Amino acid sequence: MDASMSSHALSGLNFSKSNTADVTRDRSLHACELPRQSSWRSGTTGRTFQNLKLDTSAHNRNLAAKTFCSAEACIHPLSAIESPSHVEEDKVGVLLLNLGGPDTLNDVQPFLYNLFADPDIIRLPRLFRFLQRPLARLISTLRAPKSKEGYASIGGGSPLRKITDEQADALKMALEAKKVAANVYVAMRYWHPFTEEAVQQIKRDKIKKLVVLPLYPQYSISTTGSSVRVLQDLFREDKVLSRLPVAIIQSWYQRGGYVNSMADLIEKELQNFGSPDEVMIFFSAHGVPVSYVRDAGDPYKDQMEDCIYLIMQELKARGINNDHKLAYQSRVGPVQWLKPYTDEVLVELGKNGVKSLLAVPVSFVSEHIETLEEIDMEYKELALESGVENWGRVPALGCTSTFITDLADAVIEALPSAAAMTTDTTVSEPSSFKQNPAGFAIKMLLGSFLAFIVLLVFPAFKNQNV
After folding, report:
1. How would you class 453 by CB atoms within 10 Å of its CB: exposed for 0-12, middle for 13-18, buried for 19 or more?
2. pLDDT of the chain, 466 residues: tens digit per residue
3. H helices then E strands: how many in the chain?
4. Rg of the chain over CA atoms, in angstroms?
5. Which residues are CB-contacts of 12 (< 8 A; sequence separation ≥ 6)?
6. Are strands 40-41 and 92-98 parallel, antiparallel or unpaired?
7. Are the C-beta atoms of residues 389 and 420 closer than 8 Å to each other?
């Protein structure tokens, strides 16, 4: 298979930006339908690390090939966490990165703490970084009750781990169908299974070549960037891992398999409306603060707009010329986020006479609280109250066979570009607690007080789900 890859060097890691490629799909292959084989998952505690900067380039809008396969999502039961299956020859590993989510209602507050303790989620000036943990603890404590209500409404916890495990199994089988034996690992950023133990298992398994595949189609500092920082720190600290050839697929929204799979799902859902050609296709993406794009150079906004362009071009090639709109959801706190906001656009569309609307969760490949509760419940209710009469929602890709097969192709294309990390002599900042326990305690107390003041001034931190 011919494929083009462009690489970005980042602190010794090789980043592969996967471009669209001509791919001959085997229509008989549905990864989730094959007999289940084992892949490995982990669990441990998380940590946060310093910022990374990423050079980005414009993405090619041209799709090389178009594959018209019916999208089939499937679910199969998971057994308990397993040891990795035997991988011969090159000992290839694939590490899937995802956000994570609380498994039970008791996990909600610690999950939120891990989230807000990440400096890529709440970006404080260096002078105020001692506020990070106190602020995270206060915000997570105040937001936990409302977030618990959200998770209770979707069954008492996030389904993200189960779905990601299923995607790992499906990817492993899709790779085996392409004659590539690989261990597939799952690493979550803010909840079990955490990144650290997955990395240690990779080391124990003596993996010889690793492809890191974030399950975020578009790159953002707050998603792929944050997880990669964790990996960089772990690899830098380990002499064995620092020599492991690694390729990181930084984004893959522009791949033909992803674009075609999204178009398949949209085309299928449109048929559920009485007048499919009158339906507004409403793309709802997770938002990021404007400062990420404006000040830190986050390419997320550009990539998201490019992604929508590619999907709509594919739909037009199929004779689907519906109007569409992109908006951003899930904003938190008092800062300005990418606009337009999903809730405001829904009200506007209703007032403007839009009667049929198909919601498309474009930045998510798995069902979780932002699709099952925020979109399916909150936004649906808002849309209907605003005048929309016919509502539909495209499901997340999950284990859609064409999607999983294309991820397998992306992994295979990335393997030749894997390169060992260079020795990094950067010294990590020493622990404030170890250097000065009394000073650290004073900072934490002061930080907690100031964080409480912030929450009094900016109560918006309390009022939304994660």
Report:
1. exposed
2. 433 333 333 334 444 555 443 333 333 333 343 333 444 444 333 333 333 334 443 334 433 333 323 233 333 332 333 334 443 467 999 999 999 999 999 999 999 999 999 998 888 888 888 899 999 999 999 999 999 999 999 999 999 999 999 999 999 999 999 999 999 999 999 999 999 999 999 999 999 999 999 999 999 999 999 999 999 999 999 999 999 999 999 999 999 999 999 999 999 999 999 999 999 999 999 999 999 999 999 999 999 999 999 999 999 999 999 999 999 999 877 789 999 999 999 999 999 999 999 999 999 999 999 999 999 999 999 999 999 999 999 999 999 999 999 999 999 999 999 998 654 433 333 344 445 555 544 544 444 444 444 444 444 444 445 6
3. 14, 12
4. 22
5. 242, 419, 420, 421, 422, 423, 424
6. unpaired
7. no
**Could you tell me the CA-to-CA distances from 55 to 29, 233, 272, 424 in Å, in that order?**
36, 19, 42, 19
Q: pTM for the whole thing?
A: 0.76
The CA-to-CA distance between both ends of the chain, in Å, stands at 40
Contact between 14 and 246 (Cβ < 8 Å): yes
Of the candidates 148, 143, 146, which has an alpha carbon nearest to the alpha carbon of residue 106? 148
Tell me the pairing of strands 245-249 and 419-420. antiparallel
The two three-digit tokens of residue 318, written as one number? 């199929």
Is the distance from CB of 429 to CB of 132 less than 8 angstroms? Answer: no
Cis peptide before 340 (omega within 30 of 0): yes
Cα–Cα dist 464/461, whole Å: 7
Show Cβ contacts of residue 96 under 8 Å, excluding neighbours closer than 6 positions.
164, 167, 168, 171, 184, 185, 186, 187, 213, 214, 215
Dihedrals phi, psi of 446, to nearest 5 degrees: -65, -40
Residue appearing with tokens 């990864």: 31
For residue 387, the tally of other CB atoms under 10 A from its CB is 15
Residue 391 structure tokens: 């509502």
- How far apart CA 276 and CA 331 sit, in angstroms, is 31
Q: Are 417 and 5 in contact (CB under 8 A)?
A: yes
The CA-based angle 445-449-450, given to 5 degrees, is: 115
Task: Spell out the residues 6+ positions from residue 126 whose beta carbon is closer than 8 angstroms to its own.
Answer: none
Determine which helix (DSSP H) or strand (DSSP E) holds 213, and give its type and residue range.
Answer: strand 209-214
**Cα angle 389, 392, 394; round to 5:** 160
